[in-house]
Amino acid sequence: MQRNVSIDELKPNSVIVVAGPTASGKSALAIDLALKYNGVIINADASQLYRDIPIISAAPDENDKAKVEHLLYGILEADEKNSVSDWIKLAIAAIRKVWAEGKLPIVTGGTGFYLESLINGISPIPETKPAVKQKVAKMFDDLGLCGVFEYLQKVDPDGAKKVNQNDTTRVRRALEIYEDTGVSIAKWFEMPMVKPLPEAEFTVVVMLKDLDELEKNCSQRFDNMIDKGALVEIENLQKKNISLKMPVMKAIGVPELMDYIEGKTSKEEAVNLAKLHTRQYAKRQLTWFRNRFRKIECKQIVF
After folding, report:
1. Could you give the CA distance from residue 194 to residue 199 in angstroms, rounded to a whole number?
2. Roughly what angle, to the nearest 10 degrees, separates helices 211-228 and 230-238?
3. Could you tell me if 207 and 25 are in contact, meaning their C-beta atoms sit under 8 angstroms apart?
4. Burial of 81 by CB count in 10 Å (0-12 exposed, 13-18 middle, 19+ buried)?
5. Rounded to whole angstroms, how far apart are CA atoms 175 and 166?
6. What are phi and psi of 18, to 5 degrees?
7. Is residue 99 over pLDDT 70?
8. 3-state secondary structure 100-113
């Protein structure tokens, strides 16, 4: 049963953040708070940004949206990417819009890095120029990951020490930053974080449920997703022929059900594997929020 949370000392620049692992009850609590405090809910879940997977990402349904206003849900196409800096820009615009309307922004989601960056700040590293991204992309085509990492070690040895040589995304990013700015990513990491919304007064409600209860919720919710039409949702996504490298194709439940649709596994095996991956993800999130959110510099309510 959902308990009530009382938020004290709300100010014109207040922002409520409801954080926690998947299936912990964040959405229900956010709606309760929005109804109580004249709030608008703003999405901080990377998968729920995509309009093609509302069921498999557990995005708010039409009944939820009829109760209170929801922003930043289903705003991206399946072939689009979204970085933390992209989300920060969208979130800031949404928060300021809600403030201007005299309402309370309630930011909720399980993508902890989004929330941590919104509250504590982001690196001052500038956006990489398109020409530099193209140059580095061609290097990957020509040299492969191993070759690019060897090049990074030569031109920026300090930066190379900061990344896993098998992590394509981080190696690419480190080289892009060096090629674009001439400054090692190691040096950028040493610079003070920049708070993207310094005027905000954050209050964080952290949902830290018992792991057994969380795992039970994950399994039950996935069964509900199947009942609501998750398979049809994934079939429609498959027809778009989206690259498997795109974030939407990596959302938990998508690759598992895609394998079933393509005849690579049975429905039972696909569902059980998706449930397992969801439980494992929830456990990782629980650990992350317990460890990292202790460092969040604002008022917190552990729930």
Report:
1. 12
2. 70
3. yes
4. exposed
5. 14
6. -110, 110
7. yes
8. HCCCEEEEEECCHH
Q: Measuring CA to CA, how many Å separate 171 from each of 32, 54, 165, 168? A: 43, 32, 7, 5
Half-sphere exposure of 233 (CA within 13 A, CB side): 25
CB atoms near residue 26 (< 10 Å): 25
Strands (E), 144-278: 201-206
pLDDT tens for 6-27 read: 677 788 999 999 999 999 999 9
Could you tell me the two tokens for 252?
């938990």
> Residue 204: beta bridge partners?
17, 300
Whole-angstrom distance, CA of residue 258 vs CA of residue 265: 9
| Banded model confidence at residue 300, pLDDT cuts 50, 70, 90 | low
Question: What's the mean pLDDT in 253-262?
Answer: 97
The pTM is what?
Answer: 0.86
Task: Tell the burial category of 96 from Cβ atoms under 10 Å away from its Cβ (0-12, 13-18, 19+).
Answer: middle
The pLDDT of residue 191 is above 80: yes
Greatest C-alpha distance within the chain: 58
Say how far apart CA 93 and CA 96 lie, in whole Å: 5
Q: What is the pLDDT of residues 111-168, one digit of tens each?
A: 999 999 999 988 888 888 999 999 999 999 999 999 999 999 999 999 999 999 999 9
> What are the residues whose beta carbons fall under 8 Å from the beta carbon of 160, sequence distance 6 or more?
149, 152, 153, 174
Could you give the CA distance from residue 244 to residue 137 in angstroms, rounded to a whole number?
17
